[in-house]
Amino acid sequence: MFNPYDKMKPKQKKKFEEALHFNNLYNARVSMFAYDGLPDTLKPEFIEGMFITQGTCGVGIINGGLYTGVGGYCGNIVNFVPEEYQFTNVGVGELRGKVGKDIVVGWNDATASPDWNLLQYASIFTEIDVSERLNVLFARLLRIPKVGDNKERKAIEDAILDLLEGRPTAVTSPNVLSNYIEGKEDNKFLDLADDNKIDKLQYLNQYRDNVLKRFFTLYGQGMQNTAKLAQQTTDELHGNDGVSMILPLQMLKKREDWVKEVNSVFGTNITVDFSEAWQVSEAEMEAVDEAKEVNPDSNDGSDNDSDNDDTNDDTKGEKEGDDNA
Among 324, 117, 83, 76, which residue's Cα sits nearest to residue 216? Predict the structure, then answer.
């Protein structure tokens, strides 16, 4: 299969990788909410795509069907918000009308802002890719042979190819043995290798996990990585779960209000809620909260075990002291 990535220059590869990361984050974000009762003319992925890329989503009737499209507010400003909205649906048509009457407009969040942070995180992940690639590159045995002429260059290149294929080989050179014995043999390699670079990969991988965790925590997914501190309890691990739901719950409320108005204006019966993955995450957070209410002093047991060990040691010492007496 033809792979255009192999033919790209480094700058092109970086742009391509950034687009890939954005696509992965975009797909994760699009799956955050689930809609039910939508007419065939409205696709949930398209609705969320409007929220993500332009911060608002307007729906209205074009040619007898309920559609959304690329657009935004326009017209005179009334109570700090323009009174009209206009959008275009390619292949269907264009619509401009009064907000709340001809077009019902929903907001992505409290400030009607697009998800700009997808671009930010895609850029960070791309820089991590570049750093990993450079560390791998300089961890290789990049010993570049130095040659005196093209004939010697050809011989060394052929020898390297033979070695890569597992065939022993040798390169002839006049007076090579006598020069070596007399100490006249010059260093024949320009050594760019740095084997220590490979050790940095573990830190880059950890940083990647931390950035990914930061992204999903922002959207209510309490992702955990393997960097659990020795003295960290389960309660401490889940300490930011409630904070991570602030933005998702706000975004859900904006969509619920929007859907309610759409149903009122256009007579539909649409509902919206978190998708299954987000509902699982929300249920896990509720389970942790319920466990705290049942046993507010509980943790992961690590501290209790330590206290018990100390108590047992003290008791044992007292008993031995009594025996000796």
Answer: 117
